[in-house]
Amino acid sequence: MNRLISLAASIVLATSVAAVAQSTPFVAGKIVKVDTSAGKITIDHQPIPNLDMGAMTMVYRAADPALLKAVKAGEKVRFKADSVNGQLTVTAIEKAK
Length: 97
Fold this sequence. Notes:
5-stranded mixed beta barrel
């Protein structure tokens, strides 16, 4: 029974993260640090309108640890961030063109 509840909670969380990622804008930034062991990324970024946040350097949690494997410090990126379960979270990231 606990496994079923845990699985259901995981599905709801994944669905929530996917919905958030689709409705938030991409923001330009530059990777300052990637901490794969902690699942966090530091980004120097432009304003994030959906979070009412000005341009700054911030540490974010990665919604999916695989996101951190695609980037490294010094790279320019476009990313989506939102508040997921009360934590500032990167929900999507791609290298800038």
